[in-house]
Amino acid sequence: MKVGIPSEIKAQESRVGLTPNSVQQLTNHGHEVLVENNAGYGAGFENADYEKAGAKIASSAADVFNDSDMIVKVKEPQSEEVNMLRENQILFTYLHLSAAPELTKGLVDSKSICIAYETVTDENNRLPLLAPMSAVAGRMSIQAGAHCLEKPQGGRGLLIGGAPGVNPGNVLILGGGVVGENAATIATGMEAKVHIVDKSEARLKELHAKFGDRIIPLVSDDINLEDYVAETDLLIGGVLIPGANAPKLITKNMLKVMKRGSVIVDVAIDQGGCVETSKPTTHANPTYVIDDVVHYCVANMPGGVPRTSTLALNAATLPFVLQLAQSGYRDSLNSDANFLAGLNVCQGNVTYKAVAEDLGYNFVDPSTAIN
């Protein structure tokens, strides 16, 4: 199979779909890999690294899209990339379609085969291709939030870990999944006071077993969330419903009870955000202020650490890329129900139920769509 790796063109995005080591794996299996000129440069990978691994360097994205059977990316395709997709061409990347009606329409119209990293599952109904970037984003959320709490950034002027004789800041983490756990790892390491809210008592017990009394677990149904929001210095939004829009747990009215200069980091922004006042921002302009509360809503947080993120992502995605290249999408998806769960759009059909429901499309069962 011919596999194409274009440069990422979303603002401040420097990750790349495949590393040179991943390319080597593909070429060792007899596949051709076409990498756009300097596609890996921002993540620290040179053209020469790819050429040594057996790839060919293409001068433009158009060449990559025109000459490839499968496109492997990191972020959702931008409009000019959607226009280059061909019927029956495989696209394997993050998509987050429930929050992207125009992108969804473009992919439907392209009649391409669109497989989303974020909805591929495993035997335990976890999300193995979303997890590495969720871990990175969770860890980054605390360092980003701590920076935003500094006075020059518009924050309260508070050091999250406190100081001798000064209490630490209060961190409220919504969601005890991969984002929440990794946010807690950094927040507890910085000696903040950490609350984690989740609807699952079993999950909270797991987190308490890991962190001990360094966290305060809270069952969402047992608390008045607004009471805790009022005491929070840094709020992390890490709530996820796979493939669907995130629930709006923090309303605009709740901002009125928050401290002046407190900070919200909405990691769920790719899926629409779990804060009513959230809107996507970029690394170049990461924050805005509503009701004296700083909002950090960068939609591609892991893009700020592209080398770490690319290496972590490839460790998870490479086996799936190899499977698609070896067997094609029909055999690959037919033989693995967990991989089939990643199929979001197929030859003009929306094949992921949450996307169809959120955006008003007819849902076509993915097993029907590929056969």
3D architecture notes:
The chain is an alpha/beta fold. The protein has 2 domains: 2-120 and 306-369, NAD(P)-binding Rossmann-like Domain (Rossmann fold), CATH 3.40.50.720; 131-304, 3-Layer(aba) Sandwich (Rossmann fold). The protein has helices at 20-28, 47-52, 61-67, 79-82, 101-110, 131-148, 178-189, 201-211, 225-230, 252-255, 306-334, 337-340, 353-359, 366-369; strands spanning 2-5, 32-36, 56-58, 70-72, 90-93, 113-116, 170-174, 193-198, 215-219, 234-237, 263-266, 287-290, 293-296, 343-346, 349-350. The strands form 2 sheets. It has an 8-stranded mixed β-sheet, with helices on both faces. A 7-stranded mixed β-sheet has the order 9-8-7-10-11-13-12, with helices on one face. Strand 5 (90-93), helix 5 and strand 6 (113-116) form a beta-alpha-beta unit. Helix 6 packs across helix 7 (178-189). The model has no long low-confidence stretch (mean pLDDT 97).
